[in-house]
């Protein structure tokens, strides 16, 4: 056996262990007779690589490998044991080969020099495992990684029968998404059956579109598919090779390339066996991650299609040819995207299967907390704290928000106690995360705010208008961001260097770019610096209270940031001067909407309510809604949408009529937290008492209200009693209740 290769393989396996598992591994190792010569003083503090070195040096490569496999079983890592059993034994050193333990470079992702040539598929599977088994948290320090399989929490998926006009952007304002499948035909699906036929399509689909709103976990799911395939747990009878293509990487490519070049960039060593790969094209899968992030030049590329694997074409044409199946129609494609790009993508596809990510159910939210916190007691504390704060808990159906909340709570727990300030809205959660980054850890000096936060905000806003998520150094210079500024953002985990290209930068998530873009419009114009020409008026006109607009989340953040407490907190913490005119501009925009629509709020009503919910100021909301005499809110299909609607209607003091069209929904408690087999079996569940209380408040405080229409509002017996109290109130002048 080649000692260097034995060391590399063993250390790669040990790197997959969590800290607690590695500790157990070393404790059990100390009880093995074969390892009795290893000094405990050196073994106890050793990391994965040093542990592997000690094993190989004192036991020999073969015995070290056998010992490790046995210990993997003892620490309940049967997955590593099973994979290790499939490993081919490494043979004796060839003539001229290495004869020492070698250097750390032996542990790279490439095949080892001098090693016997293995089956190409096994070589590629090893490469994929090593590339995708570890992930970096968005706020990770250099070198910090977590095991993807240990952190990943299963997401709820549902088959969609696509209507491009219906498929709108649902970002962070809904409850866990299963509830809104009640209003249309849909059924649940597992990752294992994505490419399987069903009752509607007897042939397996060749294209699957996996859609999900911002922060829903699309990329993590794509990485998990790669890892599970490499580990032999997914698509084993369906695909021989699975390739991962990152659309952000494609944006950077300017030179023409061929499909062979594209595959070569995914292959771990020179000399990709292309003939073997394309011999059975129906057993190839390409995962195209982040279609919505492609730059505009990809939207409608011009030129002849790429029809041959060796033919070089501009990257835009190459990717389009791949998706449109001009190049090997038999291969399969899995595309992840935000809903906002569905209509553009739909023009490229024939008979795709559409699947939507619905996020975490309550049971999965709880599972995520316990996976994030290694300490079970801390996990229990944090989960129950969030569970008792219903709006905050509801937001955690979005995996990204769940991570933000866990990050904040973990720091608070490490500082000695849970958060004193609870968060009700999406904006509050993001502000909390931002401010938590600025709090020093115990015993460490207070970090200084980055010297040019305004440049960061103007960069985000300009990127928003130009649909740009990847920035070059010249973009940073344009906004006054020097190298020291970028370093501060990296240290504060707001703005990160792209892992693969040092000269490209991106926000840690697109929703954070939208958050900072909103902060740009919050600033006094004299403090904004170099930014986009479009002002708040243009932003609101582009938005038009449509959740399909690219500016939807930015405007919601803008409303939330104008909350007086939040604004004051930001001014004190960051030293910013907030523009006093933005609130008045928002009110003028809403008044204009009322005048153009005859004082009837119907189109975009729920979207406007979502914005008003973010600001959480009764006086402002009352003033904004005072221009509407009739309010019609439709398609309330989630608990959060009902909460938002009832919160706002109690401030409709001048409305003559209120029409609320909702749907009874299910909660996780109904089925013990288990995943329901389909929407037709979902039990009904009544709305929370707060909903009825707020409706009753609207009846008692609005003497102008004469008509209330409640369609599919499951109030329950307690809710009906509360509503009746409002009807009996002397201030209630209602004449028509339906």
From TrEMBL:
Gene Ontology MF term list: ATP binding
Domain of life: Eukaryota
Location in or out of the cell: Cytoplasm
Keywords for this protein: ATP-binding, Cytoplasm, Leucine-rich repeat, Nucleotide-binding, Repeat
A biological-process GO annotation: negative regulation of canonical NF-kappaB signal transduction
Any one GO cellular component localisation term in the record: cytoplasm
Keyword Zinc included in the entry's annotation: no
InterPro entries given in the database record: DAPIN (IPR004020), DEATH-like_dom_sf (IPR011029), LRR_dom_sf (IPR032675), NACHT-assoc (IPR029495), NACHT_NTPase (IPR007111), NLRP_HD2 (IPR041267), NLRP_innate_immun_reg (IPR050637), NOD1/2_WH (IPR041075)
Entry-linked PROSITE patterns: DAPIN, NACHT
PANTHER family assigned to the protein according to its UniProt record, in alphabetical order: NACHT, LRR AND PYD DOMAINS-CONTAINING PROTEIN 12
Name used for this protein in its record: NLR family pyrin domain containing 12
Source organism (scientific name): Ursus americanus
The organism's taxonomic lineage, starting at the top: Eukaryota, Metazoa, Chordata, Craniata, Vertebrata
């Amino acid at each position: 056996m080649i000692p260097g290769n034995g060391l590399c393989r063993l250390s790669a396996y040990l790197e997959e262990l969590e800290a607690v598992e590695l500790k157990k591994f070393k404790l059990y190792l100390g009880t093995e007779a074969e390892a009795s010569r290893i000094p405990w003083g050196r073994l106890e503090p050793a990391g994965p690589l040093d542990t592997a070195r000690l094993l190989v040096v004192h036991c020999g490569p073969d015995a070290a490998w056998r010992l490790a496999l046995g210990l993997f079983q003892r620490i309940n890592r049967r997955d590593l044991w099973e994979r290790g059993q499939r490993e081919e034994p490494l043979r004796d050193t060839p003539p001229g080969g290495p004869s020492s333990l070698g250097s750390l470079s032996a542990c790279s992702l490439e095949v080892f020099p001098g090693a016997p040539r293995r089956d190409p598929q096994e070589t590629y599977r090893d490469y994929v495992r090593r590339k995708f088994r570890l992930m970096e948290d968005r706020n990770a320090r250099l070198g910090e990684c977590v095991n993807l399989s240990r952190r990943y929490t299963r997401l709820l998926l549902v088959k969609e029968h696509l209507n491009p006009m219906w498929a709108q952007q649902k970002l962070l304002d809904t409850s866990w998404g299963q509830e809104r499948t009640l209003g249309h035909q849909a059924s649940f699906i597992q990752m294992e059956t994505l490419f399987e036929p069903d009752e509607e399509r007897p042939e397996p689909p060749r294209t699957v579109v996996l859609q999900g709103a911002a922060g829903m976990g699309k990329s993590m799911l794509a990485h998990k598919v790669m890892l599970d395939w490499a580990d032999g747990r997914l698509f084993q009878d369906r695909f021989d090779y699975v390739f991962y293509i990152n659309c952000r990487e494609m944006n950077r490519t300017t030179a023409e390339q061929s499909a062979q070049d594209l595959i070569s960039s995914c292959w771990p060593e020179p000399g990709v066996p292309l003939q073997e790969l394309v011999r059975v094209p129906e057993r190839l899968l390409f995962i195209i991650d982040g279609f919505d992030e492609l730059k505009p030049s990809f939207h409608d590329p011009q030129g002849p299609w790429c029809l041959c694997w060796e033919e070089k074409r501009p990257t835009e044409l190459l990717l389009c040819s791949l998706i449109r199946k001009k190049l090997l129609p038999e291969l399969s494609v899995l595309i992840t995207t935000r809903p906002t790009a569905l209509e553009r993508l739909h023009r490229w596809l024939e008979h795709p299967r559409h699947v939507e990510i619905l996020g975490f159910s309550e049971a999965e939210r709880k599972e995520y907390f316990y996976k994030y916190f290694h300490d079970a007691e801390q996990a229990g504390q944090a989960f129950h704290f969030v569970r008792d704060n219903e709006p905050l808990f509801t937001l955690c159906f979005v995996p990204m928000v769940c991570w933000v909340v866990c990050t904040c709570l973990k720091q608070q727990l490490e500082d000695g106690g849970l958060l004193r300030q609870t968060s009700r809205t999406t904006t509050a959660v993001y502000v909390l995360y931002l401010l938590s980054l600025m709090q020093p850890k115990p015993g460490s000096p207070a970090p200084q705010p980055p010297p040019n936060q305004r440049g960061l905000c103007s960069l985000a806003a300009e990127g928003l208008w130009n649909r740009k998520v990847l920035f070059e150094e010249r973009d940073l210079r344009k906004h006054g961001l020097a190298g020291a500024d970028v370093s501060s953002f990296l240290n504060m985990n707001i703005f990160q260097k792209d892992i693969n290209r040092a000269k490209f930068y991106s926000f840690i998530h697109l929703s954070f770019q939208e958050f900072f873009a909103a902060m740009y419009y919050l600033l006094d114009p004299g403090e904004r610096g170099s930014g986009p020409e479009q002002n708040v008026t243009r932003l609101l006109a582009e938005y038009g209270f449509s959740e399909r607009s690219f500016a939807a989340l930015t405007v919601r953040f803008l409303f939330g940031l104008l909350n007086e407490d939040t604004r004051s907190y930001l001014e004190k913490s960051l030293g910013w001067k907030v523009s006093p005119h933005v609130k008045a501009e928002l009110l003028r925009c809403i008044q204009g909407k009322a005048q153009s629509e005859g004082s009837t709020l119907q189109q975009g009503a729920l979207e406007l309510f979502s914005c008003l919910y973010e600001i959480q100021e009764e006086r402002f909301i009352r003033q904004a809604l005072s221009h509407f005499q009739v309010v019609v809110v439709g398609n309330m299909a989630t608990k959060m949408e009902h909460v938002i609607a009832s919160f706002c209607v109690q401030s409709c003091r001048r409305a003559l009529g209120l029409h609320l069209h909702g749907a009874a929904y299910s909660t996780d408690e109904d089925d013990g937290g288990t995943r329901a087999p389909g929407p037709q079996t979902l039990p009904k569940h009544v709305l929370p008492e707060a909903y009825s209380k707020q409706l009753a408040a609207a009846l008692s405080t609005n003497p102008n209200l004469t008509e209330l229409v409640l369609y599919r509002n499951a109030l329950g017996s307690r809710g009906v009693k509360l509503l009746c109290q409002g009807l009996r109130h002397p201030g209630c002048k209602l004449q028509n209740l339906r």
